[in-house]
Design brief:
15 strands, 6-stranded mixed beta sheet, 7-stranded mixed beta sheet, 347 residues, single chain, 10 helices, alpha/beta, globular
Length: 347
Amino acid sequence: MPRTLKVAAAQVGAVHIYSDRSDTLKRMIKLLNEAAAQGAQLVLFPEVTFTTFFPRYLFKDEKELEKFFEQGEDISKSEQVKPLFDEARKLHVDISVGFAERASNGTGYNSCIYYSAQTGEVLAKYRKVHLPGTKEPFENPDAVQQLEKRYFEPGNLGFKAFRVPDLVPGALKSDGSTTDTIGKGDPVVGMMICNDRRWPEAWRCYGLQGAELVLCGFNTAGWAPDLWGTRKPMTREQAEEEALFHHRLVMQSNSYMNGCFSISAARAGLDDGKYDLIGGSAIVSPEGHILVEAKSKDDEVIVAEIDLEDCRQGKEKTFDFGRHRRTEAYSLITSQTGVVEPPLLAN
């Protein structure tokens, strides 16, 4: 039985360190309306959408730093961003959006939430686990900095999938007696942020919960040799193409290996006239095919109709985890972090 819905990624172009948050919010609301006009039921926004990607800067003034964080437990009630959620509610379009969270205990997290326009509530929150970069700035004064480890703590909510109501008509509900429920209920969704997409463990956690749709907002530098490293010189154009290739690679391969659709939404463009971020926002099928991809690095909406029934082929054949996984062989994955090579051979 088909389980179709229309989904969208709202790519957001350049946002500068001096950009007014209200102006960025207006752009986001415009993208939301564009997606709604095309019939989208769910729109994904990028990582840290409301401001520029501030972890590229070293802040000495704590008050200046705090301007980039959202305060309070429920971001949908925050006065400075509430208009976005009000618009989603009015349009009956669910949204997922990334932001810098200042938790009630003062801890900073790189977070995202899923907001249900039907219920008017935040259904789920995710905090980024795989923080890239360094705590201290690179010594190279011309380096593109990545100081997420300085401003955020690793996420503490894990990779918890959740069901989203009111997106798929006729979804099976719990009645206490039905046993054959796999692939018949409300959509099973998971969220991750940027660098998480490069770690297959994150995807597999969602795959083991039957995730049918994974949402991933991101900011990815097109040029950051101090951060990513390179064994041979590259031009800026080659480096950007490499970054885009790796982005596509992980979204397509992991969607395939976990039998799920994925949506990725980029914060793209040339921030502050010098920090280049790739585009590549895309919607990918459970067979790893790109269904639609952004054509620019500007504000842009992409939309696709997807049928969650298409997830069954991968989940029940090639990647039927119940039949084929061998957990007794995977102990290194959870018992070890860094690399431990086998001993050297004798001379």
